[in-house]
Design brief:
The chain has 2 domains: 3-157, Ubiquitin Conjugating Enzyme (Roll), CATH 3.10.110.10; 187-315, Alpha-Beta Plaits. It contains 9 helices and 11 strands. It has helices at 3-20, 31-71, 118-135, 142-167, 171-186, 205-217, 238-249, 295-304, 308-315; strands at 27-29, 77-85, 89-97, 108-112, 192-199, 221-225, 230-237, 256-264, 278-281, 285-286, 292-293. The strands form 3 sheets. The protein has a 5-stranded mixed beta sheet, sandwiched between helices. Helix 1 runs antiparallel to helix 2, helix 3 (118-135) packs across helix 4 and helix 8 packs antiparallel against helix 9. Residues 49-73, 160-188 are annotated as: Disordered.
Length: 319
């Protein structure tokens, strides 16, 4: 993909974002940069059209004459997105798109959280950059990043607050928390739980390893489905399932939602398990990119394990 192709995608993404956020007034863009890049793009398209009509010789000449122009766009697209969250105040994203975006580079971000410390801003910025690199490399992703802010900022605020508490030597809170976890493992959370967790997609190899590794560490069983959409079924001791889900929430996801939770008050957790271990369920893939998981096979697998009715609740089939 050429620089010209990148700029074309940037301008199209800009137009889409302005349409989405037009009524909210929460997105501003450097209009002068948009105008200059649009003119530059049109000039190159016109030159290419003339070159095509001139034959091979003209084509070679034009490549030499326009090469410098292609490699040096006259401006850089910048955005400011203001996101209001329910519990964490407002977040401001200053976004710069390098000429290599989206094919070979991600967006450049500067995050400001006026209601919180610099640590929150820095942590949120890193989470968003990681999300862009892990989930959207090579693709336009500004809408997805903006959409992820409300969930991520609340997680970051919680994590930074907890870290501040530990650094201040708040041992009483730590002891209390440890005591509560210990009592939960032997008290109200010592029964059986099974959860079905829906994901917009699961592709990343590191996340796939974490999904399995955390389950093995916590003595949980179930399965995961890779692709779009993604799915995790996890079962075992209730407190461990809760811990497992919390661990997954700390990872950057485009969408993660617990769709179904089943609990049984029992001391015999093993008798309630439907799966002997945690594993990755291999199903056929389809779609233009071959990344859409065959949900028909997932449904059949659930039915074989006496969980067919759950499928309807996960994917809202027939509702």
């Amino acid at each position: 993909m050429t620089i010209q192709d990148n700029i074309a995608e940037q301008l199209e993404e800009c137009e889409s974002l302005l349409c989405i956020f037009e009524d909210e007034g929460s997105l501003t863009v450097d209009a002068d940069a948009v105008s200059r890049l649009s003119d530059w793009r049109r000039a190159l398209e016109t030159a290419t059209a003339h070159t095509t009509g001139a034959g091979d010789g003209g084509d070679n000449a034009q490549r030499h004459s326009s090469k410098g122009q292609q490699q040096h766009p006259p401006a850089t697209l910048t955005f400011v997105a203001k996101v209001n969250t329910e519990h964490a105040g407002s977040v401001e994203l200053n976004i710069t798109l390098p000429p290599e975006y989206p094919a070979e580079a991600g967006p450049q971000l500067l995050v400001r959280c006026p209601s919180h410390s610099r640590a929150v801003s820095d942590a949120l910025q890193q989470r968003l950059l990681t999300l862009a690199a892990d989930e959207f490399a090579g693709d336009c992703c500004l809408f997805q990043l903006i959409d992820a802010v409300p969930q991520l900022v609340e997680e970051v605020v919680e994590e930074v607050s907890a870290a501040d508490g530990r650094s201040n030597g708040d041992n009483s809170n730590v002891d209390q928390d440890t005591s509560q976890r210990g009592s939960s493992n032997t008290g109200k959370h010592d029964g059986f739980m099974r959860q079905f967790i829906y994901f917009h997609h699961i592709y990343n190899k590191s996340k796939r390893r974490d999904i399995l590794a955390h389950a093995h560490e916590l003595d949980l069983s179930g399965f995961s489905v890779v692709g779009k959409p993604g799915l995790v079924c996890i079962e075992g001791v209730e407190a461990n399932v809760i811990d497992y889900t919390h661990r997954l929430r700390r990872l950057p996801w485009q969408k993660m939602q617990v769709k179904v939770t089943q609990t049984v008050a029992t001391s015999d957790v093993e008798s309630e398990r439907k799966f002997p271990r945690m594993h990755e369920l291999i199903v056929d893939a389809h779609g233009q990119r071959g990344n859409h998981a065959d949900m028909g096979q997932v449904r059949q697998y659930l039915e074989e394990h006496g969980l067919g009715d759950v499928f309807t609740h996960i994917f809202a089939v027939g509702s």
